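User: Here's a protein and a ligand (biotin). What would the complex look like?
Assistant: Let me lay out the input and then the predicted complex.
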Amino acid sequence: MEHEVNVPSGYHLVLLNSIGSTNDELKKLAISENVSEGRVLWALEQTAGKGRNGREWISNLGNIYLSVLFRPKCSSYIAAQIGFLPAIAALMSIDAMVGRSLEIRFKWPNDLLLNLKKVGGTLIETRSGKDGTVDWVVAGFGLNLTNHPEQTTFPATCLRLEVNKSIQINKMVELYLFNLAKLYNIWQKNGFDPIRKKWLASAHGLNEIINVRLGSNYISGIFRDLDEDGSMVLETGSRLTKITAGEVYYIEGN
Ligand code: BTN
């Protein structure tokens, strides 16, 4: 069946034909109905899809729009590490479905690049309780399977354009959820280090000069590392500078 999906144990998937935003809907469920960790919302289209930094995420039929609820017992500082799981899970899933021949990379902080064009993006939203521990984390991920927006600042693409193979949406959702659950378990058991290493192994621009836009300023430096709070570590002259938020631009030829 076109939309039949097996889910990992402890996860509960709800498929929606159309919704404003799976992140917004899941946040509502987390707050008003106190639903438990592992609730997944998958929408076939979104009418008010959200990207990072207040941007719109164009969400036509044919792509994946999916949010997962986590309730880790940690501070929001540590929970920010969950933001790295979706892109890694998507890379593992694309590899499994299409083969290792593709050029799949991560763009800091949470984007997925295919042949150096954006094919997926992550939107993590978190709320902490009064004692500073996390109440909920909603991990939203969008993956372009059959269409992509035109005229984006950073070039975008979709799997159909890059891969000579038809991809079944339900198979991709299933693999993604199993990989995400596996990574979440690894993170809970062993912390951020194994996740950080997986991310760095496919990070685009590592040890190369990159530009980062911080508001209206740009900073350039050599992208050296990913810190334990998910910041990017840039070597700028003789110092190491931590970047907690910003937009990365690669220098041509890199
Ligand atoms: C970005 O790269 O700017 C993040 C894009 C995140 C898009 C996903 S689609 C599912 C979930 N619901 C949303 O409204 N946004 C995220």
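Summary: The radius of gyration is 18 Å.
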